[in-house]
Design goal:
About 40% of the residues lie in helices and about 10% in strands. It is globular. The strands form 4 sheets. The chain has a 4-stranded mixed beta sheet with strand order 1-9-8-5. The chain has a 3-stranded parallel beta sheet with strand order 3-2-4, sandwiched between helices. It is built from 13 helices and 12 strands. By secondary structure, the chain is of the alpha/beta class. Helix 3 packs parallel to helix 9, helix 4 packs across helix 5 and helix 4 crosses helix 8. The N terminus and C terminus are likely disordered. The chain folds into 2 domains: about 140 residues, Aspartate Aminotransferase, domain 1 (Alpha-Beta Complex); about 230 residues, Aspartate Aminotransferase, domain 2 (3-Layer(aba) Sandwich), CATH 3.40.640.10. Pyridoxal-5'-phosphate binds next to helix 4 and helix 5.
Length: about 400
């Protein structure tokens, strides 16, 4: 352990939240070769690269079928379209998530209905689902979000959903390879939706996404919906959209997929180093809990709850440490959802999380020294403020 004198000499250290350039430098030759392969073939839309990616990722996600598409947002949109969700329907989800989870519901003309999250894990609170469904008989789909790289508590949800015949769409955008009691994210609901946004554990060089399913009919519907609802060329049995995954992204993803487990393992090591050091420094922050049901956490984000969050964020940034708030405004309080009728105080656990969370750098490029520096910088912030340890963020 370094002493504080030594720490002051490394105060100029930079620890970015995400370091894609460093990641790219390690795989540059392989990625460029893959890009050249596609460019030389001049086949840019769907085709063999996309098919191979789908064949590689489906078993990884524990699913029979994978359907590539243009983004995680489109994955959710396609999933909702495949179920025929539209005006008059409601869809149950959480407000503490990225906007697309509920934005796609609204874009289909349906109405998002929100249930709160568990305070310790930030995941959908399954004890609230039954009551919400009783109050909203028009709910025709449920979207649990596997937030930050860990799974939501799926068994109780799947049981309630099965009893009522409501399909479950897993928003697994942040959680490729994450496991719930040994089952992979995206393999448990009727469909799983993934994002390959560059900041994800498996990130494209642009936008890309994928839907998984074990249902052959749904898979066929999704394949048709992503190409304007075509069954055979120029024959349209339904109205779909243009959400084709392009071959360049698929080729890059196939290279990066070879490293995915290694990178996720590094994130796990970094997360446990944080847990150890934050406890060592006895700072008044709490780390998002890993529940027993979350048998594999892939740490797309490492999130703490902290008092005086906004000033801590500024302090860390002044010391060269990248950090971010996921998510500062819960979706039920977004202006665009004002007509849903929610008010501040309606979903207090999400609202409190929005005020307290901070994501720290956990990406595979972060070193043990970086983590020590981050934790020492957090400790220095609270030492200055003399915030009593153990009295906040319970
Ligand atoms: C939970 C969640 N859902 C959906 C999405 C949408 O994915 P994309 O950005 O690829 O459209 C994201 C991505 O940021 C996400 O984190």
């Amino acid at each position: 352990m370094r002493d504080t004198t030594e720490m002051s000499s490394i105060a100029a250290r930079q620890v970015p939240l995400l370091d894609l350039r460093a990641q790219h430098a390690r795989i540059r030759d392989e990625v460029l070769a893959a890009i050249v392969r596609v460019v030389d073939a001049q086949k840019f839309i769907l085709g063999e690269e996309v098919q191979r990616l789908e064949q590689e990722l489906a078993p990884y996600c524990g699913a029979e079928y994978a359907v590539g598409c243009a983004s995680g947002t489109d994955a959710l949109t396609l999933a909702l379209m495949a179920l025929g969700i539209g005006p008059g329907d409601e869809v149950l989800t959480v407000p503490f998530t990225f906007f697309a989870t509920a934005g796609t519901v609204a874009r289909m003309g349906a109405r998002p209905v929100f249930v709160d999250i568990e305070p310790a894990t930030f995941q959908m609170d399954m004890t609230l689902v039954e009551r919400a469904l009783d109050a909203h008989p028009a709910v025709h789909a449920i979207i649990p979000v596997h937030l930050f790289g860990a799974c939501a508590d799926m068994n109780p949800l799947l049981e309630i959903a099965a009893q009522r015949g409501i399909p479950v769409i897993e928003d697994a955008a942040q959680s490729i390879g994450s496991e719930y009691q040994g089952r992979r994210a995206g393999s448990m609901g009727l469909m799983g939706c993934f994002s390959f946004f560059p900041s994800k554990n498996l990130g494209a060089y642009g936008d890309a996404g994928m839907v998984t399913t074990n249902d052959p009919e749904i898979a066929a519907r999704l394949r048709s919906l992503r190409v304007h609802g075509e069954s055979t060329q120029y024959v349209h049995e339904q109205v779909g959209m243009n959400s084709r995954l392009d071959a360049l992204q698929a080729a890059v993803l196939r290279v990066k997929f070879r490293y995915l487990d290694q990178w996720s393992a590094r994130r796990q090591e970094n997360a446990s180093a944080y847990r150890g050091l934050l406890a060592h420094f006895a700072v008044p922050v709490t780390v998002g809990e890993t529940a027993a049901y979350q048998s594999r956490h892939i740490y797309n984000q490492f999130v703490i709850r902290c008092p005086d969050r906004d000033r801590l964020k500024q302090h860390l940034e002044r010391h060269g440490i990248g950090c971010a708030i996921y998510y500062p405004i819960p979706l039920h309080l977004q202006k665009c959802f004002a007509d849903l009728g929610y008010e501040a105080g309606d979903l207090p656990v999400s609202e409190r999380a929005a005020a307290e969370v901070l994501a720290l750098p956990v990406n595979p490029e972060v070193s043990a020294e970086d983590i020590e520096y981050v934790c020492q910088t957090i400790a220095a912030f609270y030492a200055d403020r003399r915030i009593p340890i153990g009295q906040l963020c319970r």
